[in-house]
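ARCHIVE CARD
Drawer: 12
Card no.: 0347
Subject: one protein chain, sequence and derived structure
Cross-reference: see card 0346
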Amino acid sequence: MGSVVEEQPFKGMSVAPKLDELVTAAFKRAAKSSVKKHGKGVKDLRKIYEKKIRIIRDYTVKRLQDICFTTPKITELHPFYREWVKLIVDVDELRRELGHLYTVSKLVNKIAGQELRRLRSTSRPSEARRVYKSFVGRFFSLMKTIEETLLNVREKQLKLVKIQSINPLKPTVVIAGPPNVGKSSLVRALSKAKPEVREYPFTTKELTIGHIKLNNHIVQVIDTPGLLDRPLEERNPIELKAILALKHLASIIVFVLDPTETCGFPLEYQLHVLDDVLKNFKNIPIIVALNKNDIVDKNQLKKFLEHLSKRSIVDAAKISALKREGIDVLMDKIMKNLHLGAIS
């Protein structure tokens, strides 16, 4: 088994600072400018103030434009990431906010140019000081208009950088099923991922990524939040992340059922969720895994198998993810469906 993490599209973003951080950094750089004070004449002051204005302008414009240009265009992302982003941030609002920052960066450049031209025409030290103060006043007034925008963009960016690193182009096994049937335990049994497992429902709220090496191929294994038996339009954002993984990532789906019903969901409920997946993902190979085989009552297991046979599912994998029983057989089924051969 190996561990491979693909870079997700938001890791390289320049995260928006708070306004006071941005302004303080710009003026600190200006204060360290290396123009030597030969005297208090107008030429000397012009040199000093010109360099300060240029430093403040250049630093501010670069920081603002870096935020805009390093934030990926949502429309250019893989459909998986594109839809995931829409679940966690208001994409249209983010676009408007980035546009605001870019516009202000252009205005900073404009007012700096105006004041630099005025500065060059000054003939007295007092005029040079007034021009510099004018620039500072206009600069602060302009920057104040983006205080809230910077905070909003920062908040959205910090959500985006937390998105898991998933390569949508790699062979991917998506583990799905109702809550608390043992999906996280199965991901841990199959890969080197260490999902946090609890003994109560709805633990998994994000996608957990593991990786396995099968016959020299790196395969992603993804644990998804539990699916409930309800229409798509009624699913919450946590469930929709599971749907996104099934829709855009799955090369194969391993659907986990709990025949012991200790997950808190009876047979009929679990089968309704399975039927929904079978109906909506007909073009993706689906392996049904009956978990907790080490503790299941034989009659209860027989009942599950009978219901599966009515759905033309006659080769469900009987496993215990916790005790790693039946995992090799399940792996062999996965490899055959991925056309990677058999376990060597």
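Annotation on reverse: Residues 42 and 125 are 5 Å apart (CA to CA). The longest helix spans residues 91-120.
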